[in-house]
Amino acid sequence: MRTGITDGTTSTTIGRGETVPTEPSAKAVADHGQEEAAVDVAALLERGRTLATPVLRAAVDRLAPPMDTVAAYHFGWIDAEGRPSDGDGGKAVRPALALLSAEAAGAAPEVGVPGAVAVELVHNFSLLHDDLMDGDEQRRHRDTVWKVHGPAQAILVGDALFALANEVLLELDTVEAGRAARRLTTATRALIDGQAQDISYEHRERVTVEECLEMEGNKTGALLACAVSIGAVLGGADDRTADTLEKYGYHLGLAFQAVDDLLGIWGDPESTGKQTWSDLRQRKKSLPVVAALAAGGEASEELGRLLAADAKSNDFENFSEAEFAHRAALIEQAGGREWTAQEARRQHTIALQAIESVAMPESVRAQLAALADFVVVRKR
């Protein structure tokens, strides 16, 4: 099988006839230069938080008790005892993209705020449900909602956030709001498809690289694609412009998820807020695992045998740290770690190429490029 990549990247065969991409071409890297270096990414992220958070909090306040309190805990606004908190509310990449999206269409960043809030609500709906389905007990360095408030509240609050997302957009009562809501609904359905694929893959011995990329494109790429187009739609951009911005966001999402996959195995718990070997504990068929299994060779074959046995084990939760470390070492020896890092860089390059064809202020283009760089080079 071939990936069908025709953007000037190099590729390599990693096993069983699968040809997969490796590094972006030297020309693709050189074309983008270093002009983004002066952009203050922290300021862009903070602007997204500053403009979106008051509207987000007002939306959450509409929820009936105790859902309003549970949601406030999830967002880090209060602690488990209900006291005000300044907990980590996440990276705020999606709100930042939504505001830049509005500016790309020539509108003020404030025009993108309802879109930023709607996307953030959908994102957090997915986190609440994902944490429960995956059994994750920690997010952003503290106990997850289902652990503190119970599974029923995690489900209810997640559902409520999804409903609020559409409400925030549709109450604008404009043609643009209707277009934005359609894009958000389509992205949400793709996100749910991706989560369903992710769960089903945990119970399969083999998943192809193409299947994994499709799953991650749904699970992560679709909502980031929506984030970087929704502000433009609210600002009056035509569908061609919005679609091109979505392409940037989709490939940025794949880069984002590739980095997440690396952090899910080798990330520092102090930075990620999750357990060591988090994705291995959950039997996730993430990119490093899938690439390693497809690579062939001694390490790949041993990894395949171990993971096949793991899938049938009733004692998986009692595995020692050494057993998880051994699996991680096999993934690295088989080339899964390096391939995934290269894939993140490749997707980053495609994302940057997409926005070259969109007419927008050059300062906005540089900021979008800087945010793409931030996504690929991070520790959490």
UniProtKB/TrEMBL annotation:
This protein's UniProt keywords: Magnesium, Metal-binding, Transferase
Gene3D superfamilies found in the cross-reference section: Farnesyl Diphosphate Synthase
A GO MF term: metal ion binding
Domain of life: Bacteria
GO biological process assignments: isoprenoid biosynthetic process
InterPro entries hit by this protein: Isoprenoid_synthase_dom_sf (IPR008949), Polyprenyl_synt (IPR000092), Polyprenyl_synt_CS (IPR033749)
Pfam families: polyprenyl_synt
Segments for region (Disordered): 1-23
Compositionally biased tracts (Low complexity): 1-17
PANTHER family, A to Z: (2E,6E)-FARNESYL DIPHOSPHATE SYNTHASE (PTHR12001:SF71), GERANYLGERANYL PYROPHOSPHATE SYNTHASE (PTHR12001)
Family: Belongs to the FPP/GGPP synthase family.
Full protein name: Geranylgeranyl diphosphate synthase, type I
